[in-house]
Design goal:
- This protein is 8% helix and 55% strand.
- With 384 residues, it is mainly beta.
- The chain is elongated and about 70 Å long.
- It has 3 helices and 26 strands.
- It starts with a helix and ends in an 11-residue tail after the last strand.
- The protein has a single domain (18-373), classed as Pectate Lyase C-like (3 Solenoid).
- It has helices at residues 2-14, 36-48, 91-94; strands spanning 17-21, 30-34, 52-57, 61-63, 67-70, 76-81, 84-86, 100-111, 115-117, 136-152, 159-162, 165-175, 186-189, 192-202, 208-210, 214-224, 230-235, 241-254, 258-265, 270-286, 288-296, 308-323, 327-332, 339-351, 358-362, 364-373.
- Mean pLDDT is 93; it is low at 1-13.
- The protein binds 2-acetamido-2-deoxy-beta-D-glucopyranose (4 copies).
- Residues 295, 330, 332, 360 line the site of one 2-acetamido-2-deoxy-beta-D-glucopyranose.
- Keywords: Cell wall, Cell wall biogenesis/degradation, Glycosidase, Hydrolase, Secreted, Signal.
- It is found in: Secreted, Cell wall.
- InterPro entries: Glyco_hydro_28, PbH1, Pectin_lyas_fold, Pectin_lyase_fold/virulence.
């Protein structure tokens, strides 16, 4: 009798957890029929649940034209994606905005080992849309974990993290061809306390891009390639664009265009990139392993060539491997505002066909210690 009562209590406490499966809401899962409305219905019930709700997308292939999962929700949400979710290839459908977005949610977990297939080839290099949709948008999210998710062939960015705080991504696998435009792996803006670790990212654009308004971003044990590398910027397209406190550690870059990059527009907008650490990085045939470029101007329409974005307190520690070009270290800093306090320690970058590399500096102040391959060209404060 006592045992019976105890087990009843056990069942009652567990009643706070509930699974909302899109299949029980009538998802077709035939890979053709648009299941967006059904997903939304299941989401709305899950979001109203006063406890831990699991929004389940079981094994199967789902066609989703576009959905935004809005909060705030009553309890915490686990989005378990086990199946494959496919985007439309029809521009009349996909040009309408975002593909899969999560907005205004506290305590969100996205997991399950499933795949998001953006079917990007239908959109790359075609001017049908003003902006192509990113695969997953996380907007105004507080406390989120994303892990064990595959994203392939996004039309734009794979993950877009915007106006969010305390978001961790791990074990995400991102793949798009090296010539696919703007398929950044993870784009972070206006967000704080963001972590990315134990992930593999190969794309046609930046592996991870850390954009204006980002602070306290830690990236570790990420392998990138192909793509444009790990990038801060471009800052200075608008006034007061700031990135602060970035730690990139224990990452490997394979045949990327850049390794660790900071770039700012050649414009007169003030801004800042400060307190940035790149440590324990392996470069494998990277075109520009270490690069600061303050002359970014893709359309060549910048009339003011002097960036007013201050780059300061940047450390490159233990960066090893091969460069795919002669200039392995390139600090092309603004002629109006020098880069300040650049620290190099144990830089060991040989040219990939064994020729020695060189460093190039313009307006770069700092100092080097330990291994200097290539020899540092930084100026000390006194010399400058
Ligand atoms: C950050 O988010 C994680 C996962 O949701 C949570 O466990 C942790 O308590 C949060 N940290 C803070 C400082 O709120
Ligand atoms: C990032 O790493 C630094 C240094 O290890 C640590 O002080 C900081 O709290 C970390 N931030 C996050 C968001 O994990
Ligand atoms: C760096 O990553 C490698 C494999 O990715 C791992 O074996 C090693 O322990 C990591 N080191 C640190 C300091 O995290
Ligand atoms: C620095 O940037 C200027 C302007 O884009 C460019 O002409 C120059 O070649 C760059 N220097 C290096 C070493 O890349």
């Amino acid at each position: 009798m006592q045992f019976f009562i105890l087990s009843l209590v056990f069942v009652c406490t567990n009643a706070d957890d509930k699974i909302f499966s899109v299949i029980s809401y009538g998802a077709k899962a035939d890979g053709v029929t648009d299941d967006s409305e059904v997903f939304l219905k299941a989401w709305m019930d899950a979001c109203k649940w006063n406890g831990e709700a699991t929004f389940l997308i079981p094994l199967g292939t789902y066609m989703i034209y576009g959905v935004t999962f809005f909060g705030p929700c009553k309890g915490s949400l686990i989005v378990k994606i086990q199946g494959v979710i496919k985007a439309s290839t029809n521009p009349n459908i996909f040009c309408k905005g975002s593909w899969i977005s999560f907005e205004h949610i506290n305590n969100l977990e996205i997991e399950g080992g499933g795949t998001l297939d953006g079917q990007g080839a239908s959109a790359w290099g075609q001017p049908q849309c003003a902006t192509r949709p990113y695969t997953i948008g996380l907007s105004s999210i507080q406390n989120a974990i994303v892990h064990g998710i595959h994203s392939i062939n996004s039309k734009m960015f794979h993950f877009d993290i915007y106006n969010s705080n305390n978001v961790t991504l791990s074990h995400v696998h991102i793949i798009a061809p090296s010539d696919s435009p703007n398929t950044d792996g993870i784009h972070i803006s206006l967000s704080s306390n963001i972590r990315v670790f134990d992930s593999n990212i190969g794309t046609g654009d930046d592996c991870i891009s850390i954009f204006a308004g980002s602070q306290n971003v830690n990236i570790s044990r990420v392998t990138c390639g192909p793509g444009h590398g790990i990038s801060i910027g471009s800052l200075g397209n608008k006034p007061n664009e700031v990135v602060k406190d970035v730690h990139v550690k224990n990452c490997t870059l394979i045949a990327t265009q850049n390794g660790m990059r900071i770039k700012t527009w050649a414009s007169s907008n003030v801004g800042e990139a400060t307190n940035i650490y790149f440590e324990d990085i392996i470069m494998d045939k990277v075109d520009n392993p270490i690069i600061i470029d303050q002359y970014y101007c893709p359309s060549h329409t910048c009339n003011i060539k002097k960036s007013l974005v201050q780059i300061k307190d940047v450390t490159f520690n233990n960066i090893r491997g091969t460069s795919n070009s002669l200039v392995a270290v390139n600090f092309n800093c603004s002629s109006s505002l020098s880069c300040q306090i650049i620290n190099l320690n144990d830089i060991d970058l040989i040219n990939y066909n064994t020729k020695p590399t060189i460093a190039s500096c313009a307006n770069a102040i700092g100092h080097a210690t330990g291994i200097e391959l290539p020899p540092s060209c930084l100026k000390s404060v006194l010399e400058s």
